[in-house]
Amino acid sequence: MLAALKESLATRARGWAETAGAALPADLPLTVPPPKLQADLCLPWPLAMAKAARKPPLELAKSLAESLGGLAELESASASPPGFVNLKLSRAALNGNLVKIVSNPTDYGQDSAGPARAVLIEFVSANPTGPLHLASGRGATLGDSLVRILRRLGRKAAAEYYVNDAGRQVERLGLSLYARRRGQEPPEDGYQGQYVADLAKSFPAEADSWTPERWRQEGVKALLAGQRADMAAFGVEFDRWFPESELRGRGALEGALQKLKDRGMVYEKEGAVWLGTSDAAQSEDDKDRVLVKAGGAATYFLADIAYHEDKFARGFEQVIDIWGADHHGYVPRMKAAVAALGHPPDSFHAVIHQLVHLYRGQEAVKMSKRAGEFVRLREVMDEVGKDACRFFFAMRTPDSHLNFDLELAKKKSSENPVYYCQYVHARICSILKEAEKQGIRPALPESIGFSSPEERGLCLKLAWFPEVLKDCEKLLSPHPLANYLLELAGLFHPFYERCRVIDPQAADVSSARLVLCYGISFVIAEGLGLLGVSAPEQM
Prior knowledge:
20 helices, 3-stranded antiparallel β-sheet, Rossmann fold, globular, alpha/beta, Gyrase A, domain 2, 5-stranded parallel β-sheet, 539 residues
């Protein structure tokens, strides 16, 4: 509803601006007014054009408000200092949007006018040398939620996990398992965690005769199976698990290097091959990088370049990588490499998520007591559940540190954010069942208008759902959706206390409020689903 309204408002406003002798900016946002204004929407547009028009913004706001009269979606339009236009939506507009939600909830939020490009989101991509840790869960939540949201909007989005199963790190894993099987300490640069010893002991007797290379293969296979199981338990599905060994096996590194040579982006120095981007116009990187070492071995950077070139070769027009907190320095060189391959600068984007700090109340904790290890995602899932993990991870912007309180995540009260949202859905399901027992059917008569502040606030909040999804796309983060669901749940509680839903003495009002409850339950269920969180019918 708001997207169509914004288009109608913009068309009317641009015509008005032309007669006023000044052009409006390209971006015309709809904003939420402060509660004291008693309005549904606010237009800051006069403020944006006042300087060019050489008129006071309040004068422009009054003129614009007058020009918006007659729009079917509006009940009123008025001006307020310093230059805002405040809008109140019509009953028909709010009711029509509610009917749209309950008629087809799984389509609510689609954006047919948005970009049609194919997007590949790569996330988690942990080395197959150990179990997934807690930070991997944050990356998984970000990536999986974004893929779900983009698909809901109508985008072509795919999820991918890059498996680094080639190179020195997996060689060290093989040597570490080989040593542990023989009761020896791993190499100095090997893997020291207790999980390595446990894994080495788990194989059958025939493993005693395995070579380090066989241990590498079997170790990677076993650990990757564990990572797959963790992601499945976390509710994450990947369209593809892409092994680095496949990339190397079909000569993709040599192909990417040749393309860079053909584009004049590499040079040789001291026996090594370098990517020369530091002097390139608008380069993101401040120095050149080695692609092939003097001894002839390809660097990890060349493998990453080949992998990203493969993404574009498969038809993806935008690639998004979700990386951990230690990858900040890698972003500019990857941007420079993508540009060196000839792809548009905005076709690659990296999202860096910060660390997760685990607490039990006020006390910082480390769950794993095994030497040389980290907090495992599976440990936290087992204690607090998938839903709490995913909702807590989704509530914060990726660039902010996250304090995860285990005790809060387990609480069955309104203090727990995920419980707060799920409880509203369960409560509404209970209301709907009771209404059915009493023979009260949901309906929205034209004569009924949601006049109370609680009802109107809920109708308006439901109308913002599609815009929130577009905010998630713009910010490449699910946090606007998580916070929206908390706000929607917060509006339901006063409505439930002050507006009697099931009232046999007021059948029309009850029927209309049942429709409103259906709309709320649908949006909460759909929103939670986009975050990978369940919407239970009873709690």
